[in-house]
Amino acid sequence: MYVDSHCHINFPELAVRLPEILAKMEENGVTHALCVSVDLPDFPQVLALAEKYPNIYASVGVHPDYPDTEEPSAEHLVELSRHPKIVAIGETGLDYFRLQGDLEWQRERFRQHIRASRTTGKPLIIHTRSASADTIRIMQEEGAGTDKGGAAGVMHCFTESLEVAQAAIEMGFYISFSGIVTFKSAKDLQAVAKALPMDRILIETDSPYLAPVPHRGKMNEPGFVRHVAEYLADLKQVPLKQMQEATTENFFNLFKIAH
Questions:
Q1: Chain centroid to CA 5: how far?
Q2: Residue 41 and residue 20: Cα distance in Å, rounded?
Q3: Per-residue pLDDT tens digits for 143-192
Q4: CB burial class (10 A; 0-12, 13-18, 19+) of residue 197?
Q5: What are phi and psi of 128, to 5 degrees?
Q6: Strand pairing partners for 92?
Q7: Which is nearest to 158 in space by CA: 195, 185, 129?
Q8: Interatomic CA distance for residues 251 and 257, integer angstroms
Q9: Contact at 8 Å (CB) between 18 and 46?
């Protein structure tokens, strides 16, 4: 069985096909999925999916790529995360690729999420792009990792260096690979995946984006996460069953979900 540790099935292009999406998950052996929040106005949709479907879980947070949206305070995030189907805080982090200029608001937003994670004990879902040094620095300053009493979490859709991955792992974080790892152009990322220990790896789709080979260029969906697992098993030269079991167990352990 597989678990999609990060998807956006509340986004309109997937929400309109939800019965089909869920059926395809089942066909492909994908038993659970985590639907990840990107802003507060749409959070009720994310929560509604988790409330309706036993195998769908949710997070609460505001993505760093949304400058003109309601700013979350740590207190508000804590309040919204009290629901038992909310298993994580995020996605949060830093993105210096899409946005330029004075991004101090991004860093402050990130700090609010880390503080909410520490208060609730719920793990963080971290997005970092062209900002790894500041991301790791703020994680350390705010005590995001289990090494400093935090809840740790996952570096989602990972595309950074082995050094960044190792720094996150030292803080108790997991590293999640998306369909990007299956792309022919992703040689550096493949080398990172090959080097990481099995007990720190998660798999995800980040759907509707980044469909893995052999569906590259199409709309992504949770059922496609098995292709990421298959690729990683081949890359790391381990049996597929071992990759399935490790990534699934890692998901349930990180997000403290009984199964």
A1: 6
A2: 26
A3: 999 999 999 999 999 999 999 999 999 999 999 999 999 999 999 999 99
A4: exposed
A5: -140, 130
A6: 126
A7: 129
A8: 8
A9: no
- How far is C-alpha 150 from the chain's CA centre? 17
Its pTM stands at: 0.97
What is the token pair recorded at 44? 């009720």
Token pair listed for 37: 């929040």
Token representation of residue 15: 């929400």
